[in-house]
Specification:
The protein has 165 residues and is α+β, with helices and mostly antiparallel strands. It folds into two domains: 35 residues; 105 residues, HIT-like (HIT family, subunit A, 2-Layer Sandwich). Helices cover 34% and strands 19% of the residues. The longest helix has 34 residues. The chain starts with 7 loop residues before the first helix and ends in an 11-residue tail after the last strand. Bound molecules: guanosine-5'-monophosphate and zinc ion. The site of zinc ion has 6 residues, from helix 2.
Length: 165
């Protein structure tokens, strides 16, 4: 029987096609891995539509995985002492569900509870129950923790400390 000589060009094509298949398979696995790890970082529990970011310090405080001194809590909102207080009273008021900043909060219940928390903390203050609410919303505005929060400050006049808006 006459055997066809092996065509080296055909071999090269086969090798290129094989390489492309392997490359596609590896890329598919990499994309799948990235997608899965992103999902595990930001999980939404369908029952309460609570968004939790595992790498977020405030989400960890809400989950009780990081220490904090809680000063107020409602269904959707939490208030705790700032770890580096700038005044005798310096609390942080946060929605329990993760959002990077105020623009992301679309749920009117959360918005309402944030206001309610301000009021309830204010009513516990000594007379004259004076306080400031400061929101650094966005990196350029000075935000350093990207889980929405309001600073509740009292016991020291920010105005006499040189801050004037
Ligand atoms: P921002 O600069 O984003 O407006 O405010 C973030 C605030 O979070 C800072 O005042 C900082 O002191 C406070 N903070 C950062 N990490 C922690 C923490 O682990 N626990 C508490 N209680 N406060 C924190
Ligand atoms: Zn968070």
């Amino acid at each position: 029987m006459h055997q066809k000589p092996n065509n080296p060009l055909k071999k090269l094509y086969m090798l290129i096609i094989l390489n492309m298949i392997v490359f596609c398979a590896v890329m598919y696995m990499v994309i799948l891995h990235i997608d899965n790890s992103a999902k595990s970082r930001a999980t939404t529990t369908s029952a309460s539509s609570m968004v939790v970011h595992q790498d977020c310090i405030f989400c960890n405080i809400v989950a009780g995985k990081a220490p904090s001194t809680i000063v107020g809590e409602s269904e959707r909102v939490m208030a705790f002492k700032n770890i580096r207080p700038r005044a005798p009273i310096h609390y942080l008021i946060i929605p329990k569900s993760h959002s990077c900043d105020m623009r992301e909060i679309t749920d009117p219940h959360i918005r309402g509870e944030m206001w309610e928390m301000v009021r309830s903390l204010a009513l516990k203050l000594e007379e004259p129950q004076a306080f400031n609410i400061v929101v650094n919303n966005g990196a350029v505005a000075g935000q350093s923790v990207f889980h929405t929060h309001w600073h509740f400050v009292s016991g020291k006049s920010l105005y006499s400390a040189g801050v004037r808006l």
